[in-house]
Amino acid sequence: MTSAVWFITGASSGLGRTLASTVLEHGDRVFATARNAAALDDLRGRRDEDVVRLALDVTDPGSVRAAVTEAVERAGAIDVLVNNAGHGLIGALEELSDAQIRRILDTNVFGTLSVTRAVLPHMRARRRGHIVAMSSVGGVVGNPGHALYATSKFAVEGMFEALAGEVAPLGIRVTIVEPGPFRTDFFGRSIEYAEQIEDYRDTPAGALRERFTAQHGDQPGDPRKAAEAIIAAVRDDSSPLRLPLGQAAVTRIRAKLEAQLADLQAWEKVSLDTAYPDA
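Below the sequence we write its predicted structure tokens.
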């Protein structure tokens, strides 16, 4: 794919920002979006017209419609949608406030759904396009202490797995990206922490809180290499539905799938012995 038009949410920081700048280096055009468009002022392409900065709050349906409409009107089409906007929430399930729960689901799930539904009619009319959903290793493996983030990313995984089957006959492809820890500010500005309950301090949920805090700035993954992997997948007609990124993601997802398969095999007789005798 050459001179493609990318629409990237959450492009002011993290993997979204690195992906936007790397796409521009490849010579494609980017509609970079963020709640505060001024945060994108220093994003530059080879030509001024290669990057368009748009204000977009994915939790505001009016904002979503306006940004997508402007992109389509200015570029004629959106070839690649990257649903990147999102944030984390650290805390055991009991520690989380109702407001924190709603904020993460509004952004990570309903915001992603809103942007995708706004772009789909344009891709469907052209019978082409590629939708990238930024999930996480946490969308496959639920970490104690990260339950609502896992809830949001498990929802993304199910949503886009089903979507892939719905839109494949219409010429639209889907890729679910599952990064492990990459050296961005995700563990900093993109993470919210619940007020800790003392009983959880010495549990796996408390340990995750400490590990995320200690790992900030020292994550093993290179965001630029992640961006190149995503671009390669978009440009490859044989790209997989799911793309884990980083050793931690590959190792932990493999272990989860192997354990799940082992349980399926161990309990298969019990599982199958649930039908009526004449069924």
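The CA atoms of residues 69 and 89 lie 31 Å apart.
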